[in-house]
Amino acid sequence: MSTKQTSNQTPVGAEAVLHVTVGESLAESGQRAVQGMEALQRGEPVRPHFGVSFTQMTQMLSAFTPRRWESVAVLREGGPMTVAELARRLGRHYKNVHTDVAHLIEWLAVERTEDDRVPVPWSEIIVDMKLPQRQAA
């Protein structure tokens, strides 16, 4: 099972961070949401949390393949560009890059602008893997 957690705001600025989490329980995710709502009720500022979660590492690796990470890196370095330009820079077939970009959009790593360019809106993408609880000996 995998989930996407988003805010209604598009991330902006130098501190826009996407959190990719593996192994976080629904209870942990829910607790973070509760803490944010409680802080808002107290009038405290709350930093938006943009994240996607996977229950297993294999799910994350299926969504974020090495070639897709390479696409993110090229987009981050080169700035917003069309899928055709990205495919040219990667030396890959357009159809395959187009499919990868569609998946990256689905998992929030990139966006598509109105002029059909693809930017990376994040200053960081943090991948965090929670290890399973250790069984008592």
Describe this structure in words.
The chain is α/β, with parallel strands linked by helices and 137 residues long. It has a single domain, classed as Arc Repressor Mutant, subunit A. It is built from five helices and four strands. A four-stranded mixed β-sheet has the order 1-3-2-4. The longest helix is centred in the first third of the chain and has 16 residues, at 26-41. The radius of gyration is 17 Å and the shape is flat. Residues 4-9 have low confidence and may be disordered.
Count of DSSP E strands?
Answer: 4
Give the helix tally.
5
* Mean pLDDT level: 88
Helix/strand/pairing class, anyone? alpha/beta
- The neighbouring-strand order within the major sheet is 1-3-2-4
Output the CATH topology.
Answer: Arc Repressor Mutant, subunit A
CATH superfamily: Winged helix-like DNA-binding domain superfamily/Winged helix DNA-binding domain
Please estimate the helix content: 40-55%
**How many domains is the backbone divided into?**
1
What is the CATH first-level class name? Answer: Mainly Alpha
Distance between the termini: 29 Å
Q: Describe the biggest sheet?
A: 4 strands, mixed
The proportion of residues in beta strands is: 15-25%
Overall radius of gyration: 17 Å
Q: Based on the coordinates given, report the CATH architecture.
A: Orthogonal Bundle
- Give me the strand/helix succession: EEHEHHHHE
Low-pLDDT runs = 4-9
